[in-house]
Amino acid sequence: MQKAVAASVVMMVMAGAYAQEDAVGEVEVTDKLISVSGSGHQRTFPCDGRKLEVVGSGHIVTTTGVCGAVEILGVGNTVTVEVKPKGRLEITGTDHTVRWKSEGKIAQSVTGTGHSVTRIK
Q1: How far apart are CA 89 and CA 69, in angstroms?
Q2: Under 8 Å CB-to-CB from 105, ≥6 apart: which residues?
Q3: CA torsion sign, 97 to 73 to 47 to 24?
Q4: Would you say residue 106 has pLDDT above 70?
Q5: What are the extents of the domains in the chain?
Q6: Stretch 76-95: mean pLDDT, rounded?
Q7: Mean pLDDT of the 104-112 span
Q8: Tens of pLDDT along 4-59?
Q9: Max alpha carbon distance in the chain (Å)?
Q10: Percentage, residues of the chain above pLDDT 70
Q11: Are 67 and 46 in contact (CB under 8 A)?
């Protein structure tokens, strides 16, 4: 059983590494902004009040902590995020999967088609 679990963990790590090697575009992290562009990035970021921008296609982005604002543009991105109360969640494009939470009300703008936008606890 332990060998099977270890093998599964190694396979997941290897799959993540290969997925990241296939990613194109830039990832920029500053004290005010996290920006992911291009396609195929699979990353987790500590948001710490920054704005999160995900632009492009096929990204899988998860944040820890609270983001001040979130902007998602493109096709088929998957984002899990916590937005500060009175913050803004903006989704544009097609087929995004967004799971979000907040301790209060937020402003939302969702345009395009085929999105799955779910508030989680």
Answers
A1: 6
A2: 85, 86
A3: positive
A4: yes
A5: 24-119
A6: 98
A7: 97
A8: 433 333 333 333 333 467 899 999 999 999 999 999 999 999 999 999 999 999 99
A9: 48
A10: 83
A11: no
Q: How many whole angstroms separate alpha carbon 105 and alpha carbon 46?
A: 21
Query: Tokens 């982005």 belong to which residue?
Result: 61
CA 36 to chain centre: 9
Element (H, E) at 117: strand 116-119
- Does this model's pTM top 0.90? My answer is no
DSSP of 44-96, one letter per residue? EEE-TT-EEEEEEES-EEEEES-EEEEEEEEES-EEEEEEEEEEEEEEEEES-
27-39 burial, b at 16+ Cβ within 10 Å, e below that, comes to eeeeeeebbbbbb
Cβ atoms < 10 Å from Cβ of 1: 5
Q: Are 93 and 72 in contact (CB under 8 A)?
A: yes
Q: How many residues does the chain have?
A: 121
pLDDT of residue 10: 31
